[in-house]
UniProtKB/TrEMBL annotation:
InterPro entries: GrdX-like. This is GrdX protein. It comes from Paramaledivibacter caminithermalis (strain DSM 15212 / CIP 107654 / DViRD3) (Clostridium caminithermale).
Amino acid sequence: MKNLKKIIITNNVLVHDKYNKKMDIIYLENYSYLDILKFVRDKIHQGHKLLTHPLSGSVKPNETPFKTIAISTDKGKLDLESLSIIEDSIVAAKKLIDCKKTPKWTEEILDDFRVIDFHLINGAIESMDQFN
């Protein structure tokens, strides 16, 4: 099952620019981190499954505005494990964001966060393509 079919959901232009001609991508440029999680939750309700964890990496949801998540292209019945993970991730992200809002970072720092998010999803995609 090499090259598992996936949809990439992101608000990160670096991810969009690298993958938009190579795979299905939903680029949500003006969406917040929490908006991305909620969008993915809606896709899970439609029958998609999570392929990457919504809280991957060591950067907290209240530190970065960027998030990229991979889901399955195939729709089946509601995957309760994916639903549980995304719901728990939304709760955790809200808790952190409510406690301390994401700062108004300089463009240089935002570029660093874009790169971190890009490397996380890039590594995940390479692993999925290699081992699936």
